[in-house]
Fold Purine nucleoside phosphorylase.
Amino acid sequence: MNANVSTAADSLLQQLGNRPRPKVGIILGSGLGGLADQISDALKIDYESIPGFVRSTAGGHRGQLIFGELQSVPVVAMAGRFHRYEGWTNDQAAFPVEVMHAIGADSLIVSNAAGGVSPKLAVGDIVILKDHLNWMGGTFQFNQARLIQKQGKESSEVIGGINRGQIYDQPMAKIAQESAMKAGFSANFGTYLATLGPTYETRAEYRMMRKLGADVVGMSTVPEVLVANALGMRVLGLSMVSNVADPDRPNVANHEEVLLAGQAAGAKMETIVRGVLRRGVLRNCPESTSRTSP
Ligand SMILES: O=P(O)(O)O[C@H]1O[C@H](CO)[C@@H](O)[C@H]1O
Ligand SMILES: Nc1nc2[nH]cnc2c(=O)[nH]1
């Protein structure tokens, strides 16, 4: 384990005391921080007090790590994430995932607000990620340094090991979809295209993304899920459509609109997360051990 990760993990475990260690990490996207308030027996730790954590500077991102229980499951939630467009590297954006894993989390639920590229999508829809297109680029120190140390392999072997191709856990995705259906709304599978940001897309770019098979487009999530995958964590990705990215209907997205849409769709996101925690993540139900993508 990297020295920084163990330093941060030790610091958090000390503050946790005899509380149960978290089994599930949750990353809350723009406008989706409301779920953090549902965590019971909450212990809130500001990012600036955690060694190695950078700062959340994007609007609507609190900057707190919240420990507690949700659906009787010990969780740790990031209320506020780190984006590449804030100037952070892939490793800095994903550092909290390494720390969550180091203190016990074996599953990760990542949420984000995203533009709806597929014409079937409307504001407020939830898309359960089955795959992603990584347009962020950039390398991972995690790749070269840590995995090699950890596995003692040559870098050429390790680099391929980061993205095993099946990043998004199918059983968790199915339970997420069933939880939505039970609650009376639909949540379909889709592909997330990650851009560096912070600009939203032009009409031509939305059109191109649609042609390339993206269903939603955002500016986060991929660094976190790549590192979670490399650590063997099971990953559930949930996008909330905050704006319709319709190439033929010119309306320029803005962050305020994204935050408002997130708050409005927060109940749907909470329903899905609760359903997954209740049924799929920890009960080690047989179908939830296989790691195949939807
Ligand atoms: O991905 P999250 O953190 O939900 O935020 C999304 O919404 C913001 C744009 O309004 C960008 O930060 C984009 O990534
Ligand atoms: N790149 C990108 N990120 C978003 N996050 C929320 N909406 C959007 C969008 O339209 N484009």
Q: What stands out?
A: The chain has one domain: 3-281.
